[in-house]
Write a structure and sequence with these properties.
Strand order of the largest sheet: 1-2-4-3-5-6-7-8
Largest sheet: 8 strands, mixed
Helix content: 25-40%
CATH architecture: 3-Layer(aba) Sandwich
Number of strands: 8
CATH superfamily: Alpha/Beta hydrolase fold, catalytic domain
Structural class: alpha/beta
């Protein structure tokens, strides 16, 4: 079961977040970072999914500074264009600060720092950036867009990161994917998994590109990776 709560931002304001508790109070936690569609059906489902695997999960509303509580669906006409406009209007520094505030809330509430950042699409990029900016145990990125612009700043001090990359991702053409993989190869704590026959959003259960086998494999790899780094 999930609930909506309010988190205090670094600049003294408040924003909403979806929260699902694990059965074990001492369980590790995930800051779940949204796609470009806000906290919609897919993100609510992902929140329940990861909580069901034994994590406390908080999914913050990262569009609140433009329009609070945005709910967009990729299949609805016009929603993709609205989502793109919101993504383009987002201030990345403020979004990363809000992810940091979510991390602080979890650490204070749970009394431990065994927290992972995991995101999809837009969140796939922000999750890696958040791990560079805040003391997460590790990051998991699902088909992040724009990683080629982020990874050059990664260093030996960046927390371990797992990248799930769709081989047919139309947002990440082959030359860009090669650039990402080359950078990952130079970072021993990074791991990249390529799903050759999958397109962007292959793990979104209600999406046109959903591939059940690939999504299950990515989930298995993510759980093993997060367990290793939150032990």
């Amino acid at each position: 079961m999930s609930t909506t709560l309010q988190i205090k931002s670094h600049d003294g304001l408040q924003f909403d977040a979806l929260y699902a508790e694990a059965a074990d109070r001492g369980a590790p936690a995930i800051v779940l970072v949204q796609e470009i569609f806000g906290i919609n059906h897919a993100m609510k489902e992902a929140t329940r999914q990861w909580a069901g695997h034994g994590f406390h999960v908080v999914c913050p509303d990262l569009f609140w500074r433009q329009q609070p509580n945005v709910v967009l669906e990729p299949q609805t006409p016009g929603h993709f264009e609205q989502a793109l406009a919101l993504m383009q209007g987002m201030d990345p520094k403020l979004a990363l600060a809000d992810i940091g505030s979510t991390l602080d809330w979890l650490k204070s509430t749970l009394g431990h720092d065994r927290v992972v950042v995991l995101g999809y699409c837009l969140g796939g990029r922000l999750s890696v950036q958040a791990a560079m900016a805040h003391p997460f145990r590790c990051a998991v990125s699902y088909y992040g867009v724009g990683l080629e612009e982020v990874l050059p700043a990664a260093s030996a001090a960046t927390p371990p990161s797992l990248l799930h990359i769709a081989g047919l991702d139309h947002f990440v053409p082959p030359p860009v994917r090669a650039q990402i993989l080359e950078r990952v190869a130079a970072l021993p704590q990074f791991e990249a998994q390529v799903y050759e026959d999958c397109d962007h959003a292959f793990a979104r259960k209600d999406g046109d590109s959903f591939v059940a086998d690939a999504a299950a494999l990515a989930e298995q790899r993510s759980l093993a990776f997060m367990a290793r780094h939150t032990a």
